[in-house]
Write the structure tokens for this entry.
Amino acid sequence: MVIVIKTGTPEAAIRQLLAQLAAQNVKGGCVAGPNGILLPLVGDTWRLDPNMLQGLPYVQEVRRLTPAYHLASRAAHPANTVVAVGDAKIGEKFCMIAGPCAVESAPQMAAVAQSVKESGAQLLRGGAFKPRTSPYTFQGLEKAGLDLLVQAGRDAGLPVVTEITDISQLDLLADVDVLQVGARNMQNYTLLKALGQLRRPVLLKRGLSATVEEFLLAAEYLLSGGNEQVILCERGVRSGVSAARAALDVSAIPVLKRATHLPVLVDPSHAAGRSELVLPLALAAAAAGADGLMVEVHDRPACALSDGGQSLTCRQFRELSAAVTALLPYAWRPDTF
């Protein structure tokens, strides 16, 4: 980080600022320039708030040279993080997560779990606690749904993924392999701090309007608590111009792969909002270098209690899995260029 101090600033004020920074484990020098005085800083600069520094009366400009998401950055951790869940090594080998938006019944979960496993899925997803836009829509089966999800996963030999919406649910989710933080909770910092204390995989979805930097700073909350098993998931952002439910930010995939060592998955179902768009978005995500996909699959989408319109049938998921597998040898990787 570099701070540009206005010409004519008293030397005592500069010394006081450097002393305050030293107390935060940041060291600085002083270089006189033609348009001001430069203070190049080294140390824990990611802890500093540029806006606070910019507000000082004698500061002309603050330039951050390293990202604020120190622990999530690839510069600090060049090797890819690999999160092992069951047979899946997320971040090393392409991973497929599939299952219904919401757990509805034992027969539904048994049918979907067995089918998606046969089609190549390595993890089973299913929602038990459903944060919905309307209070009148299906909110999930909660504890009963968790039991059905875990049992279906065990019967099919698949680890399970489900969303946590409140820290009070942690005990209920003891048998869940991967805890998902949904888009609406990406900036629920109380929840992120609590999950950072765990030593269990957490799948973090990008917020509906979050920038890439905000996304990575949310991941930083998990990492700063000591939880290194963090998986990112791009699920589309609101643009106001997309004909789909959301605009899948395909460009964010290579940006994230260069910026961070964390695995990057993509949820094409929520971006699409319509089942016929899921396959092309999934192929785009795989081609752009995603480490895996999270796809909604239902045995009878027309009867689904939640998001049936964007859910694939079991047959459609089998076709998607085959198409993506055929594409993977030609997918972009950070070391391609």
Remarks:
- The domain at 2-63 is CATH 3.30.70.1140 (Alpha-Beta Plaits).
- The chain has two domains: 2-63, 83-330.
